[in-house]
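Do me a favour: review this protein, sequence plus structure tokens, and tell me how the chain folds. Record follows.
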Amino acid sequence: MNEPLPAPTSIRILLADGTPDGIRIVEKPNWTGRALSAARSHLKRALKREEFDRPGIYLLTGWSQEGERQAYIGESEDLRVRIKLHTGDKGFWTRVVAFLSTNDSLNKAYLRYLEARLIRLAIVGHREPNQPLSPPLSEMDTADAEWFLAEMRVIFPLLGVDAFEEVSGAPGRELPKLRLVTKRADADGREVDDGFVVMQGSRASVTETPAIPDRLKKEREKLLQNGVLVPEGEELRFTQD
């Protein structure tokens, strides 16, 4: 039985410059958070806004020299100072997305918790040897932080950030599972809203076909390096979706 679809919700987006590529402010009814997104080219004007006087969690997005999407997640009790610092020490990013609380409820403990949770979510499917542990919070504070995080994850895709989406797809929208069986592979998968997911336990060939495109060859190498694909005899096994 499928889970119920998410309930409808409304979100307000203000184009502060009057253009979709400029500064965007995002709010949600009955939520104490606020998101602000700005291209690096608009940063000087964005940093004049009062939102950057507050503590918050932020994401810098851009591209690596190899042409791959790249992101940096951080937190600060002074967003303006920290983000201005990153204009000098991090050259890859082209956009900043910041989240703050309109009632100043995000203290240092909350910020560190949210930072750790976002990093863990971002590296699902791209395993790292040392995943950060979330700092301890009380049961009530953890519930509040997780609620704030859930609202952030609704807003991120609206701002073009898909690093924190679950690979299994949206609840209640699962398409039929597909199966591939050949002499070289035995794999299950299904289509999702923005691609195709190969399921945990699927098996792939150790050897590559001569015609494999360079893009897929690099992706395969990355999965091997991150432990998503592991050798088992004459096969490779997917350790996670």
Notes: The radius of gyration is 20 Å. The CA atoms of residues 63 and 187 lie 31 Å apart. Helices lie at 43-46, 79-89, 108-122, 139-155, 214-225.
